[in-house]
Amino acid sequence: MKTLIGAEPQPLAVALERTALLVIDMQRDFLEPGGFGETLGNDVSLLKAAVKPLQAVLKAARAAGLLVIHTREGHRPDMSDAPPAKVERGEPSKRIGAPGPMGRILIRGEPGHDIIPELYPVAGEPVIDKPGKGAFYQTDLELTLRNCGIENLIVTGVTTEVCVNTTVREANDRGYRCIVLGDCCASYFPEFHEMGLKMIKAQGGIFGWVTGSKQMLAAFAANKGPKYAQGSA
């Protein structure tokens, strides 16, 4: 059974049992004061706008039985997977790996690397740790999706123009349909958020579809089909 989702550039029908919710990098280092985002000079409060609508979608997706996958950008404690070109930005005392209010900045296992409490994964939800912007690069995300029979991705998270856009483009090249929820994404730069969404839906949906949490919640409410069972094909 397919469920119709109102979206741009046009509505699309998808099988929700073949669909996963992807929550990208909703980490303390990006959304809370003292983290990596703030060390780069950004107003982290701008990302908070995505939290409440994403909470509602996350709750509905779990109730509908969808596979929910979370990602976290960060590096190994020895930083062997952190390219120098990425590390050598900003003041030395505020770079990746430097001590911060929430532990070493953007390092796996540190408090700041973890997901914010409002959107914390529940038991059974995969968490993909990635060293780069895209969620497919140097991770087992594609293997997880293929093994679970996923064809469609509901994409959310931060930031719109960086990790969200990169992941959508990677997914598009791999044949996944991407439905990006605009109000469940955010950027430190409102104009980048707007243009990032426009890029995805331009030219007839060159990278995917764009919609909002209300339309997605309506689609969940209308769906009466079988629930997703993790591990099913």
Explain this structure to me?
The chain is α/β, with parallel strands linked by helices and 233 residues long. Helix content is 31%, strand content 20%. It contains eight helices and ten strands. It has a six-stranded parallel beta sheet with strand order 7-4-3-8-9-10, sandwiched between helices. A two-stranded antiparallel sheet has the order 1-2. The chain has a two-stranded antiparallel sheet with strand order 5-6. The longest helix is centred in the C-terminal third of the chain and has 16 residues, at 190-205. It starts with a strand and ends in an 11-residue tail after the last helix. Residues 225-233 have low confidence and may be disordered.
Give the secondary structure arrangement, pairings included.
Elements: E1 3-5, E2 12-14, E3 19-24, H1 28-31, H2 36-39, H3 51-64, E4 67-73, H4 84-87, E5 99-100, E6 103-104, E7 127-130, H5 141-147, E8 152-158, H6 160-173, E9 177-186, H7 190-205, E10 209-211, H8 213-222
Parallel strand pairs: 3-4, 3-8, 4-7, 8-9, 9-10
Antiparallel strand pairs: 1-2, 5-6
Question: Top keywords for this entry?
Answer:
233 residues, alpha/beta, Rossmann fold, two-stranded antiparallel sheet, 8 helices, disordered C terminus
Q: Span from first to last CA? A: 15 Å
Instruction: Tally the beta strands.
Output: 10
Class by helix and strand content? alpha/beta
Proportion of β residues?
15-25%
User: CATH topology, anyone?
Assistant: Rossmann fold
Largest sheet: 6 strands, parallel
